[in-house]
Amino acid sequence: MTQPADVTNYIIAFVHLYGILHKQEAIEFYNMLNDEPLEGLIEIDEERLNEKFVVEYGDYFVEESIAEFEGDFEEIMEQKVGKPYYIPPKEELFNYIDSFYYEKPKQYDDLLNYVATAFYDGDKDQADFITEDIMGFCRYDFKMNSILDVFERQGIKFEDAEQVKEVTHLITELRNHTRIWEHNGHTAVEIAESEALQKKSDPIRKSKKIGRNEPCPCGSGNKYNKCCL
């Protein structure tokens, strides 16, 4: 039998991955990953939710930082519209119970290695500090100027415009492969691929050619060549 703590952990993980989750969707996603279906949300451990920075917000479970500002909630909800949810397998999902967990894509290592080589004589520990900071911007508040300021705060000066271009490219690639709330846990690349696939699968509708002497489709009762043609 499902225990309240189990369901609470699912909700925590979902919210850390999506930022915002409707309570009905929490049930649906839980049922997709479990053989024993959940019919409703009862006896949720609110104390544990709060410990993990998750709060109830009307009909939603929301990451605490979003709930603090109504404008943030509305803005993120608008950005989520029409996008599918990324639903990982259980073992991957449960990583998100940790409030500070995030998936590091290959592009994280690419940026880390570049920063270590270009600015820290190969010291990856120092480079990881700045790369972690940049990852935070990619996840929550992506503004390239603000990210480049991170380098300045660490006393790093770029050699030339070409180096700025290289760093900017690596940061953009990291952002495009980062799972973010606005994409319902997907990356920008995954969303773009999904949209491209949808367009490819949509049937092409061909409009029927109207004869000159046929009734005009506008409903006037006149022949097409005497009306809208």
From TrEMBL:
Pfam families with a match to the protein in the record: SEC-C
Coiled coil regions in record: none
Domain of life: Bacteria
PANTHER family, per database record: ADENYLATE CYCLASE-ASSOCIATED CAP C-TERMINAL DOMAIN-CONTAINING PROTEIN, UPF0225 PROTEIN SCO1677
Name this polypeptide is given: Protein translocase subunit SecA
Species name: Haloplasma contractile SSD-17B
